[in-house]
Specification:
30 strands, 564 residues, FAD/NAD(P)-binding domain, 3 domains, five-stranded parallel sheet, alpha/beta, six-stranded mixed sheet, binds flavin-adenine dinucleotide
Length: 564
């Protein structure tokens, strides 16, 4: 339908991906550009930073998201500037021309010109921010365990979070849970010394939520041990601490900057109308004034509906991506674009385990119900079925165990290379024995026992088994028996040791399927029904292992380093 129209979309976030899919589905040629090869699920970044999730659980390859959209091409490149007159964008990989352009480049931390904030404050808007923050937190905790000076120890264990919006609140709750997990049992005196301080410039937390929910949030955080300071503005950040406007100095090695974000336009905005937070002011149709073929959507756009500007949350970005795609389709068909209409989906924030807040019109939910709704929403929107399962598994484990097996991250991703110049983890956190971590080992041992036992009995009863195979009329009985023994030994040993476990499980499945069909075919012989179902159960268990891997206490994860 597109003729030769080419739509270039910069930014593979919530809005860019949505627009790409709709346009490609309609047969339009789309080039989606992002600096990363993956889409980041930003709302779960704080869970990476606080050790609840692994980085790979919150990212998903863009090429895989677009795999069913042949009209859409993904290009990994950094966009430096755009030339709206010549309809060209400049990337580090070269120039690309477009018929329609969508700027969906999201946001970046806003340091509000506070001296030292951009140098020493730790932002949380990208995956690399989350990974760096996690490494920093673990380093502080580990160094504190070895620190002899009480002042230094206190400074290492004081964590200041600037900004009492949803990210600040989520980070404060998550950080308390991390500290409880790492320190309460093994170093109770250090847990007592540690402090999470949440600084809020306003007189309440979560100002975009109703007051009742703000109060609940504050009470819950205080119960978790967070120290709240309202009407506190930061004047300066340094490596040794935070100075407030009233002159107070809080000694800390960690200032987490969640005090807001601003537009990240990826283009020179000098000749564009901009508003608060550097956002590009767009027309009601989301087009940039004077450039009918250029749209700005999501966090980068200043969209005013009535008297109020949109805040910059994911549902807005999703809906703007959708509206933009439909407007471009209208333009291609020679029709005029339509004004964007927003359907408010409400707000949700999580405070900690079993505590969240949700507000939608008059509906106000708090506590476990708010928490469950928050989890449900994020589960629904997280890209990738496997990621979803992994994340839910992590949430369930965290809730049952109430502790985290936090490990440093050794990453092959180039963007993290500077963090690990020698490709070594910077620390390991010893947590003592946790009984739960032996459960997968016990499970793997039980599962492998039947295969090892069967292989050993066949070795000792080689001639008899060989005869039995021959009696069934199967060809090459010796070869088949040898293969049978090798498959069971290799798979069984792989399971017990947890070495190349996924492959081991697949080897056993490959052995079980023909064996079950030939020797335990219940259709041919109803007496084989139980044996058939037993083998089916084994295949089921092996499928679980091949999907989830060996788990802890295994050679696959034995290095103690998470690879992403
Ligand atoms: C920590 C945090 C937590 C949040 N939690 C929630 C939440 O719980 N619920 C909610 O509704 N909202 C939440 N938000 C807001 C929400 O994430 C954003 O509103 C949403 O991501 C905006 O989507 P977007 O499409 O505009 O941009 P993004 O999703 O940010 O995507 C922008 C993309 O552009 C790419 N890009 C940027 N510059 C360039 C360039 N120069 N060249 C190439 N590519 C580029 C980036 O790599 C990125 O992939 C949160 C935000 C943050 C920072």
């Amino acid at each position: 339908m597109s003729g030769n129209s080419q739509v270039v979309i910069v930014g593979a976030g919530f809005s860019g991906i949505t627009a790409s899919k709709i346009l490609a589905q309609a047969g339009v040629n789309v080039i989606l550009i992002d600096r990363n090869s993956y889409n980041t699920f930003i709302p779960l970044l704080y869970q990476v930073a606080t050790g609840l999730l692994q980085p790979q659980q919150v990212i998903y390859p863009v090429s895989r998201i677009l795999k069913n959209y042949p009209q859409a091409r993904f290009l990994q490149a950094e966009v430096n500037d755009t030339d709206f007159e010549r309809q060209i964008i400049h990337t580090h990989a070269g120039e690309i021309d477009y018929n329609y352009l969508v700027l969906a480049t999201g946001s970046q931390p806003q340091f509000a010109e506070v001296p030292g904030a951009s140098e020493y404050g730790k932002p949380l808007v990208s995956l690399s921010d989350a990974v760096k923050l996690r490494q920093h937190l673990l380093t502080c905790i580990e160094q504190a365990q070895q620190e002899l000076s009480p002042e230094q120890c206190k400074m290492l264990l004081t964590f200041v979070i600037v900004g009492g919006g949803p990210t600040g609140v989520e980070m404060a709750g998550g950080l308390c849970e991390l500290l409880n997990s790492l320190l309460t049992k093994n170093y109770p005196q250090l847990r007592q010394l540690s402090e999470v301080i949440l600084l809020q410039s306003r007189d309440r937390l979560l100002v975009s939520f109703p007051e009742k929910l703000s109060r609940y949030t504050a009470q819950h955080l205080q119960k978790m041990g967070v120290k709240l300071q309202f009407s506190s503005r930061v004047q300066r950040v340094s490596p040794e601490g935070v100075q407030l406007e009233d002159g107070t100095i809080i000694p800390t090695a960690t200032t987490i900057w969640t005090a807001g974000v601003e537009a990240n336009p990826a283009t020179d905005t000098e000749n564009l109308p901009t508003a608060r937070k550097g956002k590009i002011v767009v027309q009601p149709t989301l087009q940039i004034p004077n450039y009918d073929h250029v749209y700005a959507v999501g966090d980068v756009a200043y969209v005013k509906l009535g008297d109020e500007a949109l805040a910059g949350v994911a549902p807005e970005a999703l809906q703007q991506g959708e509206a933009t795609a439909h407007n471009i389709l209208r333009q291609i068909r020679g029709k005029s674009p339509q004004p964007f209409e927003y359907i408010d989906k409400g707000r949700a924030a999580i405070i900690g385990r079993n505590a969240g807040v949700v507000s939608k019109d008059k509906l106000q939910l708090q506590g476990i119900l708010g928490w469950l709704i928050w989890l449900g929403i994020h589960f629904y929107y997280l890209p990738g079925g496997r990621n979803r399962l992994n994340v839910v598994y992590s949430w369930i484990c965290d809730n049952i165990q109430q502790s985290r097996f936090v490990k440093p991250i050794l990453s092959p991703y180039p963007e993290f290379k500077s963090l690990y110049p020698h490709n070594k983890p910077i620390l390991t956190v010893s947590q003592g024995a946790k009984p739960m971590k032996y459960i997968p080992l016990v499970g793997r041992s039980f599962l492998s026992s039947i295969f090892l036992y069967s292989a050993i009995t066949k070795i000792f009863g080689f001639a008899g088994t060989q005869q039995m195979i021959a009696d069934r009329g199967l060809p090459f009985p010796t070869l088949m028996l040898l293969g049978n023994i090798i498959f069971q030994l290799v798979g069984g040993i792989s399971l017990i040791l947890g070495y190349k476990t996924r492959i081991g499980a697949l080897v056993l499945i490959a052995f079980l399927i023909p064996t079950t069909l030939v020797f335990h075919n219940f259709l041919a012989d109803p007496a084989e029904t139980t044996a058939f179902l037993k083998n089916l159960a084994l295949i089921g268990a092996l499928l679980m292992v091949s999907y989830f891997g060996a788990g802890p206490v295994s050679l696959d994860t034995g290095s103690g380093v998470d690879k992403i």
